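Hi U.,

Before I forget, here's the chain from the pilot set. I'm dumping it here mostly so it's searchable later in email.
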Amino acid sequence: MGEESLRKRKGEDSRKEDGQPIQSHEPQTMNLQKQVGLISGICMIVGTIIGSGIFVSPKSVLANVGAVGPCLTIWAACGILATLGALCFAELGTMITKSGGEYPYLMEAFGPIPAFLFSWTSLLVTKPSSFAIICLSFAEYASAPFYPGCDPPQVVIKCLAAAAIVVITIVNSLSVKLGSYLQNFLTAAKMIIVAIIIVSGIVLLAQGKTENFKDSFKDSKISVSSIGLAFYNGLWAYDGWNQLNYITEELKNPYRNLPLSIIIGIPLVTVCYVLINISYFTVMTSTELLQSQAVAVTFGDRVLYPASWIVPLFVAFSTIGSANGTCFTAGRLVYVAGREGHMLKVLSYISVKRLTPAPAIIFYGAIAIIYIIPGDIDTLINYFSFAVWIFYGLTILALIVMRFTRKELRRPIRSPSLCTFRCFWKLFQQRKLLNKIFYMYQVVFKCYTG
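Structure:
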């Protein structure tokens, strides 16, 4: 990485000895600017987490536990676990104030090899596949009204998804503020449909629609393996709680705004998820919910008719907002890894005029388009999931390791990291869950070997 990089590392080491947080110290003219405040940070978390999952497939949790009571409990517990994980990332983000998410934390705790593996796994697997999944979901809902009574052609879905990727990539390459403002608008739009569903459910409950909540734990399938799988599906809907750690260098006052955004944003999402599921159960039995292809659309048809068309419209807003949040943050990982010499040097460049990591964002968007061409949503989800939770657990382990090896670093907040790591580890100990992970590896192997 050269003499200049060596000098920067030596400078970091001297600051580590003084017990100061590890920060990025690029020249000001070549630095990402701090333009993301508290409100934008909350919108980034809420807007990225609430995507298509809660509107399309909450039945995955119900299918594993079999009853309303355990289902609602799992949704709340997933929110608590996501909050614990995010608090661990908040401690890391205020201790090591670099952008790039898990990358700088793995670099400081375990050295360059795990960080290198994470950066390339994220570049080639987790981030672009997640971006592609969300844009494909958007394309399906956006094109559905034009093909009543039948499924839209795959060519139309893939072209619309590719167009969405191109537009989002251009927006985030042009301006940090433009991407942030777009995220704020789309988050507000998705909160409208969330509010509509929640208020409709509360009104129905006030009218006495409570029969589906009687004996809510009856016929439940409670076992260690079923709970583990239910958590696995629920946590998929909460994915995105670590997004602010990818743009730490662009946060105004990260020591305050990073933990505050997490403490406000994720409990807000948890409350919304639980109330949305309660609203679903006011008009659908467990059997009807499991048979529904799109739960939110079924809810809209039964409660909002003749205005049920607003559901697919706002689901499209929701998915495009989640895609924008994913693109906004993921481009920073490629930029930081390129800056450390773990990727092509050109990916570490910043647009001098617009102060955005434009080469990294464009490269990331191109990879996502490549994934859309041969893949569908289910295959991409299988491809995405097996890798992402491994690195989440490894990052929380890094926090525990640095509690002992880097005691000199200043920690503005401290999180229950050991408890969180144990929760993640218990989930991965479930036999059926491990079988599912092995199946995902088989899917990926078959995809690439034919």
